[in-house]
Design brief:
- The complex is a heterodimer of chains A (150) and B (764).
- With 150 residues, chain A is mostly beta strands.
- Chain A has one domain (2-145): CheA-289, Domain 4 (OB fold (Dihydrolipoamide Acetyltransferase, E2P)), CATH 2.40.50.180.
- In chain A, 12% of the residues lie in helices and 45% in strands.
- In chain A, strands 8-1-2-10-9 form a 5-stranded mixed beta sheet. Chain A has a 5-stranded mixed beta sheet with strand order 3-6-7-5-4.
- Chain B is α/β, with parallel strands linked by helices and 764 residues long.
- Chain B has 5 domains: 2-43 and 52-115, no CATH class; 119-298, Heat Shock Protein 90, CATH 3.30.565.10; 305-471, CheA-289, Domain 4 (OB fold (Dihydrolipoamide Acetyltransferase, E2P), Beta Barrel); 483-618, Beta Barrel (OB fold (Dihydrolipoamide Acetyltransferase, E2P)), CATH 2.40.50; 625-763, Rossmann fold (3-Layer(aba) Sandwich).
- In chain B, strands 19, 20, 21, 22, 23, 24, 25, 26, 27 and 28 form a 10-stranded mixed beta sheet that branches. In chain B, strands 10-14-15-13-12-11 form a 6-stranded mixed beta sheet. In chain B, strands 2-4-5-7-6 form a 5-stranded mixed beta sheet.
- In chain B, α1 (2-15) runs antiparallel to α2.
- The longest helix of chain B has 27 residues, at 60-86.
- Classes of the chains: A mainly beta (150), B alpha/beta (764).
- Chains A and B meet through β4 and β5 of A and β17 and β18 of B.
Chain lengths: 150, 764
């Protein structure tokens, strides 16, 4: 995966958001939409990082607590919370994030590999890091994050 | 179509410029419509490679219909938005209705596009069977029937494998070698019939062969050998249950196929495949004659009727096919109805033991809600007394449970509340839930919320139900059967006043409703309730017969009967119960108009209500019309018509005899077909018409009818058959042996009318 990030070139637009205190970004092309609909149905027995399911215009969407999935603190639903709907393997999945910042335009070439001191398990979820004007943005690998085998 | 759509769109544009962009995009003719849909779907989302392209043949006229409907929908949408901005409530309602109409039509049409003829899978079988026959050196004729019966695409796809398995089994193990067949006097050419047809809203697929049949003894021996059943269990099994052992997992692994030498290879897989499709399999076999495998399938999987229940804050849907019955056990009856076996709770239901599973415990939900469901164990263990529970504020909470069954499982699922039955659209759950056993999918409710659909088998497994427990079930009805030589009646028991127990035969009850006494209205001297958009007349026992006055307050039960084509409700008090009991009817002590007698069941004397007399008293005009017909019937006949009634149950015989006699006919009775035939044979000119039950010992209704028809003396004698259930298949079979008419056993008005009509025809 990290290799892949390196190989990619050209323009990159990242949609950035906070999960707890961590600033993360997703390639904007992977995002279908963002919304703030917070009504969801809990699914007993589901993995702990799954918050529930939601009705998105007639489709059933699984909502995932990104904070918990990444091994950070569970997200709290607040005024600024948003759900980012991404499409992964033919299925819509919603990611609950704490708040959304802005879109950063950069280039794939500027993406640095993961710092070597990042935990191996968590490292799997990141494609690399991008230094922006004020902060370091961790580039999420959606394919890995939404992998269901872990 | 597209022109009108456009026109509607233009109209709108002029009136409200703000919405132009939205409006133009989709209302500008059909072609654009399609493009839009494509754009919405996938621009930013790279579609993962489709592993197998899926195609579906759809009739062009269906597509045309859909295009029209889509146009119609756009038009209605425009209308709606226009009216919303103008704020005219009435017009919004009109537009809403129109959208409602169009949506349901679109839904139906879309569903039709998914329907595929079973011929698609049937047609590959001639080749399969031909090849097999050649390899095995057998002669087999495969006949296909009902190729054009349509089923949902997903069902058709799922049906391929199990059907192939079953047909191969029939050809391989069912049909014997030509010389064996010749030796037993059968034609050398074996026949396999594969047919599909509709019955009662379901599709039936049958695989019929005229081969050697299943060797049930061998199946039993293998099952015993493998410890799948105990010898005791086998002793109490009927032949049918023995045959069904073939579906047990473990009876059929590769080496056993040679072991059993008969069918059995992977039948459990066939069954579980069909279970997934919501289908049921049934095997009928006769040694030396052949085997019939019958598969019942729903028409579609996409929309299923379901029962809604709620646990905690969430609602859940249970597919209606799995629901056997709903029970509400009052808190104070828990100790009587629920027993602790070891540490497992078991419900006693009409002599059957049903394991109880707690939905909330199984799924690890908090047991914080103050529902009695959670208190059952505490009560049973004596941890908490009834008073304490009542003090906690649970006095009104009863234990609600749903008795569900699927495959080998049958258990009671304890939930917090029971709701309505609704039709739901099944949506798949995402891949993150693949480890959750208890769900079959999710659905979106009318209010936009999502509800989970429960998988009854998965929940059973989750609850740790072993197949052994579940399998003890078939023995119980068997015991009941054994003792049924005495009169065995299904009764619906209710209360008039708390001390007065009353009962009606369960077959007569159309359904039961729970109402509040406030819903009863007095209109024109009659009591009615509003019900499903109509009015339902209701009455209480005290109106027509001499019993204590019913206390009309609080919650009431309405027992709905279908009489002379009308519905009428009898008011009663809970608790109600359906029991199966051997009844010795006492027709003297408590006999009075409206009460046909009494019986002692358990410790209580129960009044058996004569519902005909009651309704005749309460609604005499319902019966007036037929009264005049009857007089005409008598006038047309020379003397009083003489009827022969054949019926094996004492209870029904007396009931039916009584009301036929009341109508001015002379009635003789016979308790089975053989007795009846002897009576007819000894005095051929005596009877004008025969009314016969179907299921009887010694000689059943079909046999009797056949005898009557084959005798020249009775060629024109009308035969009316009585059954408790009329299925198309029975009617067809009845017609074939010469039965003139079918009537439901206790629909008095219809039966009398039918008797009258046939007598008139017979006389002329």
């Amino acid at each position: 995966m990290k290799q892949q990030a390196k190989e990619k070139t050209g323009a990159l637009q990242l949609s950035c958001f906070y999960v707890g205190s961590a600033l993360c970004g997703i390639d904007i092309n992977l995002i279908q939409e963002m919304n703030r609909q917070m009504e969801m149905t809990k699914v007993p027995q589901a993995p702990p990082y799954v918050l529930g399911i939601m009705n998105l215009r007639g489709r059933i969407v699984t909502i995932i607590d990104l904070g918990r999935k990444l091994g950070l603190a569970p997200s709290k639903t607040t005024e600024s919370s948003r759900i980012i709907i991404v499409n992964s393997r033919d299925e819509n999945i919603g990611l609950l994030v704490d708040h959304i910042t802005d879109v950063v335009t950069s280039k794939w070439e500027y993406v640095e590999p993961n710092p070597s001191n990042i935990n191996a398990v968590k490292g799997r979820y990141f494609q690399g890091a991008l230094a922006s004007s004020k902060d370091l943005i961790a580039l999420l690998d959606i394919g890995e994050v939404l992998h269901d085998d872990w | 179509m597209s022109i009108s759509t456009h026109a509607g769109g233009e109209d709108f544009v002029h009136q409200d410029t703000k919405s132009v962009s939205i409006n133009n995009q989709s209302s500008d003719g059909n072609s654009q419509y399609v493009v839009c849909a494509g754009e919405n779907g996938d621009p930013k989302v790279p579609k993962p490679n489709m592993s197998q392209p899926d195609f579906l043949r759809v009739n062009v006229s269906l597509l045309e219909d859909l295009m029209n409907l889509a146009g119609e929908l756009v038009l209605s949408r425009n209308q709606l938005m226009q009216t919303i901005s103008s704020g005219a409530i009435h017009q919004i309602e009109v537009a809403g209705q129109r959208i409602d109409l169009v949506t349901s039509e679109i839904q139906e049409t879309i569903m039709l596009t998914r329907m595929q003829p079973v011929g698609n899978i049937f047609n590959k079988f001639p080749r399969v069977v031909r090849d097999l026959a050649r390899n095995l050196g057998k002669e087999i004729d495969l006949r296909l029937e009902g190729n054009d019966v349509e089923l949902d695409k997903t069902i058709i796809e799922g049906l391929g494998d199990p059907l192939t398995h079953l047909v191969r089994n029939s050809a391989d193990h069912g049909i014997e070698m030509p010389d064996v067949r010749a030796a037993t006097g059968k034609p050398a050419m074996g026949t396999i019939v594969l047919k599909a047809y509709h019955e009662a809203g379901q599709v039936i697929i049958e695989i019929v062969d005229d081969g050697g049949g299943l060797d049930t003894e061998k199946i039993v021996a293998t099952a015993l050998g493998r410890g799948l059943v105990s010898p005791d269990q086998v002793k109490s099994m009927s032949d049918k249950e023995k045959t069904n052992l073939i579906f047990l997992p473990g009876l059929s692994t590769a080496e056993q196929v040679t072991d059993v030498s008969k069918r059995g290879g992977g039948m459990d897989v066939v069954k579980s495949n069909l279970d997934q499709l919501g289908g049921q399999v049934d095997i009928k076999t006769e040694r030396g004659k052949g085997t019939t495998i019958r598969i019942k399938l729903p028409l579609t999987l996409a929309i299923i009727p379901s029962l809604l229940v709620s646990v905690g804050q969430e609602r859940y849907a249970i597919p209606q096919v799995n629901v056997d019955e709903l029970l509400r056990i009052p808190v104070d009856q828990i100790t009587e109805r629920v027993e602790l076996v070891g540490d497992a709770e078991v419900l006693l239901l009409r002599g059957e033991l049903i394991p109880l599973l707690y939905f909330s415990h199984m799924l690890g939900l908090d047991a914080t809600s103050c529902e009695a469901s959670h208190m059952v164990r505490e009560i049973l263990c004596g941890d908490k007394s009834l008073e304490e529970i009542q003090k906690d504020g649970c006095a009104s909470a009863d234990v609600n449970l749903v008795v569900v069954s699927a495959g080998q499982f049958r258990y009671g699922l304890v939930v917090d509340q029971l709701h309505d039955s609704v039709e739901i659209v099944v949506k798949p759950l995402g891949r993150h839930f693949k480890d959750c056993q208890g769900y079959a999918g999710a659905t979106i409710m009318g209010d936009g919320h999502v509800a989970l659909i429960l998988d009854v088998v998965g929940l059973g497994r989750l609850g740790g139900l072993s197949l052994n427990i579940a399998r003890e079930k078939p023995q119980v009805p068997k015991e009941a059967e054994a003792t049924s030589s005495q009169e065995n009646l299904s009764l619906f028991v209710f209360h008039n006043t708390p001390q007065e127990y009353c009962a009606v035969p369960l077959d007569l009850v159309a359904r039961v409703e729970l109402i509040d006494s406030g819903e009863i209205e007095e209109v024109g001297g009659r009591r009615v309730i509003k019900y499903r958009g109509g009015t339902l007349p209701v009455f209480s026992l005290d109106q027509a017969t001499n019993v204590n006055l019913l206390d009309i307050s609080g919650e009431l039960i309405v027992i709905v009967f279908l009489m002379a084509g009308h519905e009428i409700g009898l008011l009663a008090k809970s608790p109600v119960d359906a029991i199966e009991a051997q009844v010795a009817m006492d027709g003297f002590t408590l006999k009075q108009p409206g009460i046909s007698g009494s019986a002692v069941i358990g410790d209580n004397t129960i009044l058996i209500v004569d519902i005909y007399e009651l309704i005749q008293t309460v609604q005499p005009e319902w019966f007036a019309v037929r009264g005049s017909i009857e007089i005409a019937g008598d006038a047309g006949e020379v003397g009083v018509p003489h009827l022969l009634l054949v019926e094996d149950s004492d209870f029904f015989r007396n009931q039916v005899k009584k009301f036929i006699e009341d109508d001015g006919y002379t009635v003789d009775v016979a308790e089975d077909g053989l007795v009846a035939w002897n009576m007819l044979d000894s005095d051929p000119d005596m009877y004008d018409l025969v009314v016969t039950d179907i299921a009887m010992p010694n000689m059943d209704g079909f046999e009797l009818s056949k005898c009557i028809r084959q005798d020249k003396r009775f060629t024109f004698m009308p035969i009316i058959a009585l059954t408790s259930l009329v299925g198309d298949e029975d009617v067809a079979r009845g017609k074939a042996v010469g039965i003139d008419d079918y009537q439901i056993k206790l629909d008095k008005e219809r039966l009398l009318h039918s008797i009258y009509e046939w007598l008139k025809r017979y006389a002329s």
